[in-house]
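Re: your question about Glycosyl transferase

S., sorry for the slow reply, the queue was backed up all week. Below is exactly what I fed in.
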Amino acid sequence: MNKNKFLAILGTRGIPARHGGFETFAERLALYLTQRAWKVVVYCQGDKSVRQRIDDTWHGIDRITLPVKRDGAPGTLEFDWACVRDVVKIKPGVALTLGYNTAIFCAWMRLAGVPNIINMDGLEWRRDKWRMHERAWLWANERIGCWVGEHLIADHPAIAEHLATRVSRTKISTIAYGADEITGADEGPLAGFHLVPNQYGIVVGRPEPENSLLEIVRAYSRTKRRAKLIVLGNFQPEKRGYHRRVVESASDEVVFPGAIYDAAIVRALRYHARFYLHGHKVGGTNPSLVEALGAGSPVIAHDNVFNRWVAGAASRYFSSQSQCEDHIDAVLGDDDVVAKMRASSIERFETAFQWSEILGQYETLLERYCELEKAREPVAQAQPATPQKPLSGKSTRIISRS
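Result:
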């Protein structure tokens, strides 16, 4: 098989995207490369109804769906190991692994000679939600990923700085995450949530302590706003104490509709929001924050190096509940402030986070490693031609071309 322009993508639940940022990115990159004459294979994690491997094609992309017997983290381990074993068999020109959580398995690709580029994502081991042994696993796998990856991708300059303490900077490329620009959206979906355009705020993110959901909800609920805050995320207050504290802290102006995967509804909610609240403390270029910029949303974000680089100087930042409350007051009470912040978000998005530029950067990097792999392949030596008896009495010289 010709390895030139043959990519395998690992590390996501698969395409089409239904879960998170990496799935969306895998879908966009696979579609982009397929249209540019690449052969792309994307590995998909089957649910319990999938009993055996399924090979099919989706919009020209080869999908390999592998069955998984376990749920949760054990199922992820099972799936990732099965993907690595299969990649070693099909021998693509280059593999792209999204995330380092099971980087130890990538050592097998390194030993088998499959060039593997790893998108190192954020500082996963720093997240508050992990227990000590889980943090140790993630910390170790970050180190292993740095060693066994042929090349590393950081989606944020601060992540690149961190990785440079592990490996040579020449092994690291910084390529941000992208999003679609939203220049308009139907107001219809807002009616289902009893929302009025430009009279509500929005939060999108997993309800985890490091995402500041409790501080945000408390800040919003301290006074009557005459505007709603819609908080998208999979809340299970009956099962998880943190979720329960967030919900119990909310006023009647805070709405918890759950996790919404309908792209049209999420697009409408983003576009018509007066502002976007982003509480993430850990990570690189967060997809949800980039999507907010693409929708032209004024941003109020937790004050850290990650968010400041993404959202830019004109956004507003908080490091305490009281600061968050002050910024909410400002954007709800002043249309001029909102207009200036909205213009800044659009400008920052157009400068740094458009898919066309980002996917082009990925293709350039992937091509380089496909070409390196092609150069490593041994050149078949032509067998000497068997001399034949000349047709005439004159001698004939046989020329062998290799």
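The two ends are 20 Å apart (CA to CA). The longest strand covers residues 39-45.

Happy to talk it through on Thursday.
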